[in-house]
Every structure is written in C-alpha cells, then in structure tokens.
Amino acid sequence: MATAICTVFLSACSHQPSAEHHPHWSYQGEESPAHWGELAQEFAVCGSGHLQSPVDLSTKAKVVKAHLHYQYSPMDYILENNGHTVQLTPQTKSVNLILEGKEYTLQQFHVHTPGEHTLNSKQFPMELHFVHTDSHGEIAVIAVMFAVGKENSHLNNLLKKQVKVGEKVALTEKINVQDLFPKNTQHLSLKGSLTTPPCTEGVNWIVMEQPLQASYAQLTAMEKMIGLKNNRPLQSLGDRIVVIGN
Question: Can you give the residue ranges of the Alpha-carbonic anhydrase domain (predicted)?
Fold first, then answer.
C-alpha cells in the first residue's frame, strides 16, 4: 500500500528525508532529467522506457474515441511546496472521472512551469497535472495548458499564500478544479508515463487541446513560488497511437 501511495504522490514522496528509500532527483546538474535513469535502480525506466512522457502532440490525430466524462465539486485543499512542484491535495475524495468504463478519483494536482507537453510543437508557460487513480492503482492524468492572457480569477486562490519549500497550508477557500478546465473538452489521449521519477509507464494521459489564460503576473508568481523551471524535456513519441476525443 505504501508503494502505491508513493507512486501516485511521487513528488511528495520523493522529497521525504529518508534518502535510502527515496533517492534525490532534481531538474538541474548531475540529478537533472538526463541523469534520472542512472540515479537509482527504481528510476531505470526514466532512461530505458519506450512510453515516456511528456511528448509533442499533433492536434491532427484522426482516431476518435468516446466523450470524456468528469464531475468535480468545490473541495478543501492542502497546498504544499515539496521542492519539485506546488501540489494541491483534496482533503476528501470521491469518484471524479470515468475513463473507458473505469472510475477514477482525483488524488492531487500540481504545477509545471513551463509546460511539459507541447501541442503542434508549441510550448506553454504553465501546465497543470490532475492526477487520478482507480481502485487498482491505475493512473490517469488530465493536463491543462495555460497561455499568457487575461487574469484567471480561479488561479488566485492558489497564489494567495507563497509557500516555501517544505511548507504546507490549508487553503481557506474551496476549489472546484472543473473551473481550471477549458469549456471545450476536446483532448488528445495516449499511454505514457509519470513525468518525474520513477517515470512509471502505463499512465493514461488526457491532454486538453484548448489552453486557458493566465496573466503574466500570475504565471510569474507561480514560477517564483516553485523556485525553478520544473519541466522534463520532451520524450520520443515512437509508434504510440494518439487518440482524439471530446
């Protein structure tokens, strides 16, 4: 059970002080993404895997799948800076996502600045990852891109407190993550991996095509809170099939 929890909450678990169980990794220097596969045996797939993420996605994918079903409600969240990202964890959980007949529950969502996936070779300044699991531990991640534009009022609750590394706070206002999804549900889906060690493969990725907007000040504040650029470089798509849905 502990292993499954650490797989889902990879960023939080990897920052625990017990180094023998959670080898240290980062985005810079000798512990940067280019070296992740060499840092520990459990990270080997970061360097040798064939279903790694993130990737560049073409919006011209032709295979069509069924509609995406999700439902979220306002929830209380814990905001944490774990040294790799800013992560928000719901204090109560329920089924939120139906994917290919399976029920998934939101476990956490976190921030990457700049974004990790690219759409038609375009990178965005920020990407949110909404990490879900089913009852068997299978992972599904919804990715939402943010472009520079108008201020996004739904991001303000995330930015009210500038948490430092190792700090966590309970937010005073509820968040409905559906407010952080685009109204247009057209998306690209494929099999991939976690974008941080241990880079576990078999993750169901759902990448929303329509980016949301955030002001330059909001994007800068989020990057400042994280304290570093926390995006993994693009990986090879190989012969994976990318499916388009709505």
Answer: 23-246
Q: Is the peptide bond before 74 cis (omega within 30 degrees of 0)?
A: no
CB-based contacts of 221, cutoff 8 Å, min separation 6: 159, 162
> pTM for this one?
0.91
Task: Enter the tokens of residue 92.
Answer: 């109560």
Residues annotated as part of the active site: 84
Residue 182 CB contacts under 8 Å (≥ 6 apart), including other chains: 144, 208, 209, 210, 211, 212
- How many Cβ atoms sit within 10 Å of the Cβ of residue 8? 17
Q: In the chain, which residue ranges form alpha helices assigned H by DSSP?
A: 2-8, 10-14, 36-39, 45-48, 156-159, 216-226
Three-class secondary structure of residue 219 per DSSP: helix
pLDDT digit string, tens, across residues 85-103: 999 999 999 999 999 889 9
* Predicted pLDDT at 246: 84
CATH superfamily of 70-184+200-234: Alpha carbonic anhydrase (3.10.200.10)
